[in-house]
């Protein structure tokens, strides 16, 4: 059995917040705003997994109206989502994710993101691909107002 899912998320970039992406804190003059730590990449991955198993999205499981998730570590949320996939007898086939950001430069941090994500999903790093693109200064990402991420996953029984 093969299950596929896709996820997409956006968070605003503001001053006074840490810039945490893929479980890695990246030095930057702005950080991502959210109820949780606003890790846009881990949210897109979580939503892709939840999509693959027909379980809606992270807002359904970890509501932003619940103080329990205020400043929540999104890596812990991803680990909880992964338990739901494992309970269905599923393993990660592979995932492919894209961070959409004009700045900061993600490339130096991507190997560490892959390591963190592979560990959370109990898989080989070869099954996890993370990449980044600018939008050539166009749109909200291009103006540095926010960062987006998207992900597709393939889960196998
Ligand atoms: N925030 C980003 C955006 C891009 N990269 C890397 O730079 C390459 C060129 O980006 P383009 O948008 O001009 O295609 C891209 O392939 C990424 O490797 C990055 O590290 N951080
Ligand atoms: C992650 C959660 C946790 O309350 O809060 P946010 O950081 O606001 O992130 P979002 O991508 O809007 O998803 C909703 C919530 O699940």
UniProtKB/TrEMBL annotation:
Record protein name field: 2-C-methyl-D-erythritol 2,4-cyclodiphosphate synthase
Family annotation (Pfam families): YgbB
CDD domains on file: MECDP_synthase
Cofactor, how bound (note): Binds 1 divalent metal cation per subunit.
PANTHER family the UniProt entry points to: 2-C-METHYL-D-ERYTHRITOL 2,4-CYCLODIPHOSPHATE SYNTHASE, CHLOROPLASTIC
Cofactor: a divalent metal cation
Complex and partners: Homotrimer.
Organism listed in the record: Paenibacillus physcomitrellae
Keywords: Isoprene biosynthesis, Lyase, Metal-binding
Primary role: Involved in the biosynthesis of isopentenyl diphosphate (IPP) and dimethylallyl diphosphate (DMAPP), two major building blocks of isoprenoid compounds. Catalyzes the conversion of 4-diphosphocytidyl-2-C-methyl-D-erythritol 2-phosphate (CDP-ME2P) to 2-C-methyl-D-erythritol 2,4-cyclodiphosphate (ME-CPP) with a corresponding release of cytidine 5-monophosphate (CMP).
HAMAP family given in the database record: IspF
Pathway: Isoprenoid biosynthesis; isopentenyl diphosphate biosynthesis via DXP pathway; isopentenyl diphosphate from 1-deoxy-D-xylulose 5-phosphate: step 4/6
């Amino acid at each position: 059995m093969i299950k596929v899912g896709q996820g997409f998320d956006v968070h605003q970039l503001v001053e006074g917040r840490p810039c945490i992406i893929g479980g890695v804190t990246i030095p930057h003059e702005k950080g991502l705003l959210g109820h949780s730590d606003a890790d846009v990449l881990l949210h897109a991955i979580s939503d892709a997994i939840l999509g693959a198993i027909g379980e809606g999205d992270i807002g359904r499981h970890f509501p932003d109206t619940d103080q329990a998730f205020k400043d929540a570590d999104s890596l812990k949320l991803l680990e909880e989502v992964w338990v739901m996939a494992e309970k269905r007898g599923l393993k990660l086939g592979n995932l492919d994710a894209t961070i959409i950001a004009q700045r900061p430069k993600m490339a130096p941090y991507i190997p560490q993101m892959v390591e963190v994500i592979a560990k959370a999903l109990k898989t080989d790093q070869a099954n996890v691909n993370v990449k980044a693109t600018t939008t050539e200064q166009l749109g909200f990402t291009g103006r540095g107002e926010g960062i987006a991420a998207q992900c597709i996953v393939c889960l196998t029984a």
